[in-house]
Amino acid sequence: MTTLQDTPRASRLHIGLFGRRNSGKSSLMNALVGQSLAVVSEKPGTTTDPVYKSMEISGIGPVVFIDTAGFDDDEQEAGLGAARVHQTERAAAETDIALVLFSPEADEDGDEEELAWVRRFQQAGKPVLAVIAQADAAKDEGHARKEAIAQATGCSTLAVSAEKHHGLEAVRREIARLLPEDYQLRSITGDLVGKDTQDLVLLVMPQDIQAPKGRLILPQVQTLRELLDKHALVMSCTTDCLDAALAAMKEPPKLIITDSQAFRTVFEKKPAESLLTSFSALFAALKGDIDYFLAGAHHLVDLAAKAKAGEKMELNVLIAEACTHKPLDGDIGRIKIPRLLQKNLGDGVRTTVVSGKDFPEDLSPYDLVIHCGSCMFNRSYVLYRANEAKEAGVPMTNYGLAIAALLGILDDISLPEHPFSAR
Predict the structure, then answer these.
(1) Are 401 and 284 a contacting pair, CB within 8 Å?
(2) What's the CATH class of domain 190-283?
(3) CB contact burial 328-351 (16+ within 10 A = b; e otherwise)
(4) Would you state the CATH architecture of domain 287-412?
(5) What stretch(es) of the chain map to CATH 3.40.50.11410?
(6) What is the pLDDT of residues 334-384, one digit of tens each?
(7) Which of 160-164, 251-255, 268-272, 322-326 has the lowest mean pLDDT?
(8) Residues 6 or more apart in contact with residue 104 via CB below 8 angstroms
(9) What SS3 state is found at 120?
(10) CATH 3.40.50.11420 segments of the chain
(11) pTM for this entry
């Protein structure tokens, strides 16, 4: 059960365990987290869907381990093997650090599959740790095997025994050493708000159907917490109280952060000297490929200009939500953005909405992808989706930037120049 004190999974370092069936992935994860979470069995293919476990590691902080199905799953019944491997590939997309498990003794194929997965992560720029997870079953406890794997992979290699709890601390230390350089340096507001400068910030937060009664939505909570950590002076209001909030301030706020749906109202009422942005726009810079997302938003501006000039167009737009929820009246992704697209681009716009991990492998049928703020996804997974769009030649942006573009105020919103600084 998740509590208010828990770090959301999307904000944790994702550590994925990858290997063949019965390579010891589940045993290693259980040993690392100190709990019997994943079922361990001598029967191949026991792990089907990825198993996630959140925990804290001293010196690193909040992490989530991902135990995956074997990448050699060849179960033919109803295509189950291929489906399991597909889930493993999805887990790879959201992995920040990969642990690739090797057998205690070399196989006839010379570790071909393991080496292919190591190269896959290395090509994606992700740190890899090669692990001999059942080293107690190897000759000389895996020393010679470790040297051979290290030479073949060019990455750190450890020999461990989950059963005897040998080498587990070395795995934790190596994970800490492999941390991405920008890990724990990412900042939602970046240099828009200084550290210990007591900048005045106004949060405009409509409490509509998107916000469950009695709670704030996650981007609002995370942004507020960061502002408090920076010792900013924070005032919050709903859209209908914006005039009163501004009147109560002795001086204009340095920054106003609003829900994207209230962009137009806030833009028209904000003091000239106050910077304006949205929670969704900030998360585009925090988690996504901001340059690519901005290019996608400017593509929308160009399309709107063509439509205004009388050009008719047929467009297929994919709207991707990270959350899975029951569609509601006034839903931003299913109702408001499609309505805004048709208003600005014409009746030839067709939208398709996907949610959660449902993201098309083939993006060629689409002319544009508009993604949500991705508060439920980690950055690795958002960048994976952005790269898929790039490779398909499909422009991509996110909710906040798309709405600003369609409202004609894209050039008037502010984004951090250095989203990984000033935390």
Answers:
(1) yes
(2) alpha beta
(3) eeebbbbebbbebbeebbbeebeb
(4) 3-Layer(aba) Sandwich (3.40)
(5) 287-412
(6) 888 999 999 999 999 999 999 988 899 899 999 999 999 888 888 889 999
(7) 322-326
(8) 132, 134, 135, 137, 138, 142, 145
(9) helix
(10) 190-283
(11) 0.80
Other CB atoms within 10 A of residue 412 CB: 14
Q: What is the DSSP string of 14-58?
A: EEEEE-STTSSHHHHHHHHHTS--S---SSTT---S-EEEEEEET
Please name the residues in contact with 379: beta carbons below 8 A apart, sequence gap of 6 or more. 186, 286, 287, 288
CA distance 418 to 301: 25
Q: Which of 396, 269, 261 is nearest to 339 (CA)?
A: 261
Q: Pull the structure tokens for residue 23.
A: 């390579």
314: buried, middle or exposed (CB in 10 Å: 19+, 13-18, 0-12)? exposed
9-177 in CATH: which number? 3.40.50.300
At 309, give phi and psi (nearest 5°): -80, 0
The answer to whether the CB of 71 falls within 8 A of the CB of 53 is no
Are 306 and 313 in contact by the 8 Å Cβ rule? The answer is: yes
**What CA–CA distances, in Å, run from 31 to 53, 157, 167, 219?**
12, 18, 11, 34
β-bridge mates for residue 166, sequence order: 161
